[in-house]
Write a structure and sequence with these properties.
Blueprint lengths: L9 E2 L3 E2 L10 E5 L10 E7 L3 E3 L10 E7 L10 E7 L4 E5 L3 E5 L5 E9 L3 E7 L21 H4 L3 E2 L2 E13 L2 E16 L9 E7 L3 E3 L10 E7 L10 E7 L4 E5 L3 E5 L5 E9 L3 E7 L4
Length: about 290
Amino acid sequence: MAESKYGKLITTDIVQKSIHPEVTAPKLSFRGEIDSEGTSFSFDWSCISQPIDMRADSHAHDFDEFLIFTGTNPQDMNEFQAEVEICLGEECAKYSVTEPTVFYIPKGLRHCPLDFKRIDKPIAYWNIFFSPNYSLNMTTSPQHSNKKVAESDYGKYIVKPSVRTRTLEVQYYIDKRLAGEEKSCITDVTYLGEDAGGGLLTMHWYVVTEPLVMYEPPHSHGCDHYELFLGGDLTNVREFDAEVDIWLGEEAEKHTIDSTSLVHIPKGLVHRKINFRRVDKPVMLMKLSVSPE
């Protein structure tokens, strides 16, 4: 068997145990290397099933960061039965999260403490950042303030992602005649960085419940792109009961994803359709691009 050319772009050892004892579900963690653009895509992802006060003092970073809060119900991605409180800015302006929300934290913007005050049903918490190391600028913390801050102060950095359910239709032709067609229902969650101050992140999050082919012609992107495959039970992301075929490079090197994995598609690398060949239990695909659009 020929040696794999692109296998090094697939990372499977991303499931870990959280350092927080209150987080009992397996977490996901990835640290990327500095790329040709001088950035690095890294993240931590956790399923929060009980209240937890992440008592980090107010701090800032020398890199951009995204804090993403969503529900964990694959049948209803709008479901969010929790309340999370986060502080932003020098004045520690408090914001309450009671629905799926993305916070863009530009380089230098102070944020935290972060308090998961009420968790009626488990929620997902993402921390995506552009650095190979999660470093803090822990200068003297400002005093908390009850001062009301105008929505325009930080509102541009706070976005509710779009959630929609739609039908994918695929038609097959032989000798220019329709030979068959397939219809599949799919739910996706979409976030565009340009909607929140221009941060370098675009996300499309798909819930796949049955065998499905996402047809795309051979193409590449003008930025680094990542595809995260994980099980649909977000309280146990280690479980992945499916087989997904992908093809990478001009030569269409085939790889099969059969466990929770992250696929890095570097800028300019050709890739194609994604075939969810076997789906015994719901799975999720998160497409993440280092681009605001």
